[in-house]
Amino acid sequence: MTGFADLLNVVRIMEDGDLTKYSFKDFLAKKVALHKDEIIISESDKQITWEKLDKMSDLIAEDLLGLGVKKGSHVGICGANSINWIATFFAIQKLGAMAILVNPILGVSEIQFLAKAGDITHFCFGACVGIKEDAETFLREICDPEKSTIKFVYNILNNVDIENRTLSHLAKVAIDSINVEKDDPSVMIFTSGSTGVPKGVLLSSYNMLSAAVCGVKTLELAKDDVMCLVLPLFHIFGLVASLLVGMIENIKIVIPDKVKAEPIMDIIEKEKATVLLSVPTLMLMIASSQEFSHDKIASLRYVALGGAPVSEAQMLLLQNKFPNVLFYIVYGLSEMSPVSFTLKNDSVEHITKSIGVPTYLVKVMIQDVISKKECSVGETGEILVQGESLMSGYYKTPIEKQDFDEKGWFHTGDLGYFSEDGYLHFAGRKKEIIIRGGENILPGEIADAVTKLDYVTACQIIGIPDDTWGENIGCALIIKKGHEFDEKEFKESLKSSLASNKIPTNIVVYESFPLLANGKVDVLKLKKDMTI
Question: N or C: which terminus of the chain carries fewer CB neighbours within 10 A?
């Protein structure tokens, strides 16, 4: 794919061989052949082996065949993390269809929009908000032919009776006859859409397994590791960095009943989980929980944080709360994840102030936003990436509107710089730059100053429209329990570290930030609260 194969003899040594050469269909078959009796997923009191996962996905694939799913079909999958979600994902892959991952908190109109955007014809649903509220109305409306392309629905939470039901000969022949290649588009993930219109990111099994191999090489997991899966599987971080990394390494993956601090701590304690990939907000919630205890999280060895920036003060707080945990910072995108990782024996400075070094098989360049020239060390510009885990493109988007340049670099829209030692530093989003009175202000600088205040647990800095200045600086805060917030004192305490034009003007205090289903802060809700 890269053209280097004829020049360099590159060999990856892995227990199961080079798994990136397989489609997901063949990946599962390979795992069953080698590890069929080993437990791979645990949820509540249910555990399944590779062989049982294979049988479940066969039977679901047979059901989907009956609904008309075939190679190339666009099949939506929407629901909370579960064994059945994972089995349905592999069922879709066995048929050579494309799994289109849908956020389970979306409403009817949003799903109708995504259905048209992704040409979804079949919709596999599990535990999602619309079903809980009014299942009959929800299913009828998402199939409205005037507003949606969905024609068939399938309940993934129905019991898949692998003990008493066998795959029919006809279905087996049909499934076996479908040839799926590693470069076929197999997954469409929508960008979060919290600040704009979602775009469909097209990924192949080769893209995602290559990305997972990058995570494997960095984390250096052991046979007895147990991964607690808290990140949503409809998101690239959950699907690739959690599920696929765990599957490649063949470690047990446990799914908590709810993605909240207390159930997560309970499952870590019960299952002796050693690995957790999370977003900073969730880890801070666990750290500040009234039920937090070192005994509950004593088994944890590795925690990788991504999805949102973490300040130095927040990182130091987490390291204090989890003294025996090795923290990694990971940076990635829906279009390519991971891009960079901090390393196993990194200094506190690297962990708290950088987003690591470009990972295996990934190239990164910093480009000046105005001149489009490559930036020197220490100069902030846009982060550009290339690599085998990079998406093939956005679905139904003209070439001139794709975020690739003529040299094949993908423009992330993120700002950053390289330090002298080769570490990448995140400096914010191009579109998140606050332009106040004609001056560009980076939110990260303000966030660092705010989170150094001893009573601040977390903050979010965003631009708020203003008739005079163009934008003012909005600050959403979570403060320590028992502290009485004084806005005047807050602003005064920032004067020693920030220029007057960088001190927040619109300030709102929260007990907890409103979140999207992927764990990221709902920036649009914050902005709305600050402009009232």
Answer: C
